[in-house]
Amino acid sequence: MFSQSSFAANCASRAGVFHRPAITASMQLGRSVAILVLLLAALPAHAAVYRVGTGPGCTHNSIQNAINAAEANAGADTVLITRSLFYIEQALVLTTSQEVDLVGGFATCNQATSDGMLTDVSGINGALEPVMRITLNTGGLVRLRHLTILGGDEDGAGHGGGIFFRGNGSLQISDSAINNNVAGYGGGIYAEGTGTNAELIIGANVYIGFNTARYSGGGIYVDGMEMAMREQGSVIAFNTAQGSDDSGFGGGLTLLSRGSLLARAYIGGGGFGTGTILSNTARYGGGVAVISGDDADFDANSRLQLFTTQADRRAMIRLNTASVVGGGLYLKGRSGFFVTIAGADLWNADIVDNQAPDGAAAYIADKADLFIQTNAPAGALPCQSNGPCSSITGNEAQNAAQQPTLGAVIRNYGEFGSNFSNLARGGVLISGNRGGRLIDSSDGSPTLDTALIVNNAVSLELFRTTGDFATIINSTTIAGNTIGGSAVFRLNAFFRLKSAIVWQPGTTTLIQTGGTRDVEWSIASEVGSLGGGPGAVVAAPRFIDPARFDYRLRAASPAIDYAIPVAGDDRDVHGLPRDQYIPEVFRPSTGRVRDAGAHERPSLQPLVLNGDLEFDLNLWSPVTANAATWDNTQNAPGSVGGSVLVSLNNIPQARVIALTQCIHLPGPGLYALNGFGRSGIGTPASRDATILAWEYRNNGSEACNAGAPTMSGDHPLTTAASWGSPPASLINVTQAQWNNLSSITISLVVVDRGVTAPGNVTGWFDGITLGIVGSDTIFANGFD
Fold it and tell me: What is the pTM of this model?
């Protein structure tokens, strides 16, 4: 490092190259000193650290004094705030174009690093002002860490109870809490942009809770700037926007575009794992209100992006309440001289358990849109292949007295429309919601692509449109819903139903009062209202286990390979590849490889459902009462989880049929039946026999029990006390014998071989399989 004298000499020597010989020594010295002063002034200012508190090492006894010192210093400064003082009656003011850090979490001024314990900065008993008023010019950057901002009480219609932030710089908050503050707008935080560089960044572990806005923006009000909350452990919860008449927007968050300044929020954190925007209350938009302001210019739109960044903490708008409309979301654009759009994009995120009299999950007003699973934002996790990527579940249209209303779960009231789509990967689950209707659109265009709409309860129709816009349903399953109205769809305009399943027995599929329809490659419980075949046919879709909300397709479902393929890397509702051809499935015509509905079955196997009995006896029907129990202590070789134990004393006959399963066959072929059995302890001559009994019926109906069996037989497994599996039994089903109601019923049977009376049986079963000889899957499942 240069000393001051050597630095001056160096500057003088550098300056000397410009000297003329006629300049005197004194003149040269004066010029060198002047150059030194200029060079020193051009150097970056030294970053200062100010310590607030009482005791050794403290530089200031108030936060405001330390802030003033930081403002006066030209460097990037840090104000460390200890807990050695109580900070009440605070109304701090910070105006800067520089970089300032306000950091709590220090017990004393001599403490070297923050201990992470938050320092309280409170406005209680003070002036009716925000706890912090921050104004940032271009280039200004303020960071808040390890602080609790509470007790702010900006009066009347004032802005920002905890924090008022205005300007064209960046406010960044992490590891802090903004709690119990009150204002007219922005109870916790009010953030107003004055230029395109303005941003509010909520980092990790920030709790914005129990704040109140008298008008709008209970937790945060963002006015014409960008906001990001992508880090983990941050949540906007238990805030309220009280409102009256035309206010009360956004219990958790309000986004408002203004003039030429757009409003954006990028929310990717998963909160505490229970919700990201959680348990907030407002008149409009209990969770979030996204609004394009009346003075917004063209393209000055407002938009929310909600997405998951950590697998175990999903991004959710959850348990929010609106007293008027929009329990989870309220979206409102503007039509006029300039058209501005208010919208929300969800990717790998959920709207769950919200309530409002109308629009319990979402209320989509004039010039607004809701897009789900269209484009993955930067930093978003990809959808996993084990379930729907996004969901709208458990939302209820009800009033403040918790009484059901005739409002919709998703209400579109305007001209632009609501759009549920899957143009990339993954899909949308809409389930367990309650209301007058699931989707009610007066002037919008509901579009559902790769959606699973099941187990909702509505008192009227499931869908209604009253305007002139189309309703489009592609690759979607609608089933198991409780519908009080006379139809699934009541529409007033064009209707497209393509590659879909609408299975609501006892309910008319469509009442259409206007427009035309385009129905292709679909399966429905009633097709007369759709114009009949061939666009739609009546055929039981054979879901795997609708009682347990599993609406995937069994191998013999008529929806398998039913529709024509679609070009591109398309995915089903679980993120699995579409257009998977299964050669063993019989089909009446060529060229069809896409499954109708939301799910694509990837392969033939398994034909036997829950054949490995890994968790329970689900999908096996009892025949003899109390004969079968699930046993987690026994497993066949290569199996895990458990098996079925058949044990019964005082049997009325030697042959005990414990459980049975009905399996429809996907086509003709040579079927191989096998499994593992184990007998109870005893002598070889007296040990019970474990048997797979089977019955084939050409036309056994959907229950597999109509008429006498066409063929039947026993497949003995073992009488040994250890697990055994013999060569498979073969069942030949010719093309002449097979039709779409052909089935094999498999029964788990134990036969008593004892020598004493009364008789009893004991035996175990596991790894039950059925396959077609010659298919690739048959060898993969142990058949020879």
Answer: 0.89
